[in-house]
Amino acid sequence: MDNKAIGVYDSGFGGLSVWYELRRHLPAESLVYLGDGKNCPYGGRAREQIRGFAEAAVERLVAEGVKMVVVGCNTATTAAIDYLRERWADIPIVGLEPAVKPACLTTKSRRIAVLATEHSLSSDMFLNTAARYASDVEVIKVVGRDFVEIVEACEEHSARAEEAVRRVVAPLRTSGVDRVVLGCTHYPFLRELIERELAGCNIEVIDSGEAVARRVEWLLDRYDLRADSNVQPTFRFLTFADDEYRQNLERKALELL
Ligand code: DGL
User: What CA–CA distance (Å, rounded) separates 209 from 231?
Assistant: First the structure.
């Protein structure tokens, strides 16, 4: 048993979609969320730079005394997960990967689309996963252009969001895919719009949030790290940006509940 918090990290607001699944599945666990904010978006940046941001973030969470880290960011995972696990070999570090495997196992049309950042889609990790699970499935790679910026501006219910989603997602309606994978943790905030754009096309939208929560649960049991359910959990929010950003993180998290 271990009552220390689980650290969750993302470039910004996106990882809150993972935070939400962790709260839902593991209500006894305390969580410390770090949304970088200062360097977001990561998606178009070089690998070394993202790795530096991820290292600073995990360093901060470790200094907070967390018992586990969830990198709630596909981009940071593809850029840095091996390095982070090597550097902090004594704590479990969970990464996020687009749900290519479940999409490939369930697609009937043998054609799927993965929506993610430029960095994630061109990473070795993504290419390896695609080669492993999608050898007989066609994978259409789509960058969610402007999606992260829209979510960071808290504009997911705006005309700007509708337009961006239409521009990116409408071509998928006639592409022959029957699964669309949300491979960036910011994108679930636009899920409603994405699903509306795909309505009537028999396309299922999949994200990784729940699978990550299950993986975390498995690790808590494996290393005997579960929190005592009689102890009140705490929820804290940190950022490398300013306090206004930190307050927005907190507000957005509460809105999800
Ligand atoms: N939320 C992130 C991801 O899952 C990164 C978005 C960004 O900063 O570009 O990929």
Answer: 25
